[in-house]
UniProtKB/TrEMBL annotation:
Oligomerizes as a right-handed, spiral filament on DNA at oriC. Domain I is involved in oligomerization and binding regulators, domain II is flexibile and of varying length in different bacteria, domain III forms the AAA+ region, while domain IV binds dsDNA. Residues 162-296 form the AAA+ ATPase domain. Keywords: ATP-binding, Cytoplasm, DNA replication, DNA-binding, Lipid-binding, Nucleotide-binding. ATP binds at G173, G175, K176, T177. It holds the Pfam family DnaA_N. Plays an essential role in the initiation and regulation of chromosomal replication. ATP-DnaA binds to the origin of replication (oriC) to initiate formation of the DNA replication initiation complex once per cell cycle. Binds the DnaA box (a 9 base pair repeat at the origin) and separates the double-stranded (ds)DNA. Forms a right-handed helical filament on oriC DNA; dsDNA binds to the exterior of the filament while single-stranded (ss)DNA is stabiized in the filament's interior. Residues 1-100 are annotated as: Domain I, interacts with DnaA modulators. Residues 373-442 form the Chromosomal replication initiator DnaA C-terminal domain. This is Chromosomal replication initiator protein DnaA. One of its GO terms (molecular function) is DNA replication origin binding.
Amino acid sequence: MTEGTHAAGGAGDSLWQACIDQLAQELPEQQFNTWIKPLVAQINEDFSKVTIFVANRFKLDWIRAQYASRITATLEKLYGQAIPLELALTQREAVARAYATPNQSAPVSPATEPTSLAEDNGQAAFKNRLNSALTFETLIEGTANRMARAAAMHVAGTPGQLYNPLFIYGGVGLGKTHLMHAVGNRLLADRPDAKVLYIHAEQFVSDVVKAYQRKTFDEFKERYHSLDLLLIDDVQFFANKDRTQEEFFNAFEALLTKKSHIVMTSDTYPKGLADIHERLVSRFDSGLTVAIEPPELEMRVAILINKSRAEGTEMPEEVAFFVAKNVRSNVRELEGALRKCLAYSRFNQKEISIQLAREALRDLLSIQNRQISVENIQKTVADYYKIKVADMYSKKRPASIARPRQIAMYLAKELTQKSLPEIGELFGGRDHTTVLHAVRKIGGERQQLTELNQQLHVLEQTLKG
Ligand SMILES: Nc1ncnc2c1ncn2[C@@H]1O[C@H](COP(=O)(O)OP(=O)(O)OP(=O)(O)O)[C@@H](O)[C@H]1O
């Protein structure tokens, strides 16, 4: 089961995909990528229920509070009648079973606490929100994460000393959250009485808002300032939240003064963070900043072999290479591909082979093999903005035509291997500097204008199939 797809395939699959596409258009890109895109859903074959699997407890609560009704409404609009929604925590066996029995609902009740949540650790009322399955032992090491892993291990072994704060950044699904939990779990294994808290930045924002409304800042401070280790995920979410940034700054200073450790993650390095106060950005960068890169081929192979072993199945090395060569973006997608292969093998009672992987992953492979041509981009963009395809090559300059043309040039550069002169040629013999200008202009505006960004997102999704 991959992100955004349905377990059993068929009509449910298309319905869920349509729902995801719709939400991609409606929500700001960052929100969509963080909360909706990683969701894994299973729609029963009789459409009597949709079960959405979420990676951890916080995410589950967040999806329930912020997005569940929106997802239900979108599905209802698309399907024509309401489909009850259930939220469940991702548990490998549950997902695998859901896969193998597409007619049955997932055997996980929506609000159950996962058995893996290591919330007690002798700290009765204190909830650390750690997932005990995410440890250093289950994190595969490779060139891509070697430095981040080494720094994290150091912090877990001697917190409050070097590398404080530890700032880990990288793209989606590369193991930042996993690494953070590993630090917390390791510290608790060594010192069960340590006060550790894992929290997503959005939850911190929401705690600040609650403390503000209820005038409970003393409790808030007591909670955060007394920690030995604060693990805070996705701090880019602090953007534009002044009060939150102020409270985080206070917590940060208090924790560092008492030599507690802070580990943070983000999708970018500190100076790349937008709309976060300079004094905070410079604090973020004052310890150690390390990147996690997308995993290289050998690491992807090792991850596949290890994860399938953990599921009780041996994946032959040649199959792991085949899958790893075809799934390159991130570990979460790799896990999705692996689950598909394992479920396909169980369901069809076939040995895992390259042929089986090819069948199990055929959707994914066909998307990759589908070449996006400049002609296709021109046609799609012209359709979208309701202009003639011929205007893509014409010399006309009114903005209603020039802008879609620039957008098409931008997409041609982004989505094909063509050079600037080649693209210029295909747009009615234009100079390569004209293409470069369009690429820079649209690329720059995309960062600023949410509406343009959403339009581009829709066009990209359409072109990628
Ligand atoms: N090196 C690794 N070895 C084993 N599993 C990994 C590794 N890296 C990532 N994973 C797994 O991949 C999945 C995605 O990782 P994780 O959630 O930590 O990513 P992330 O970088 O925090 O992404 P996001 O920013 O989208 O939250 C998790 O199931 C995690 O356990």
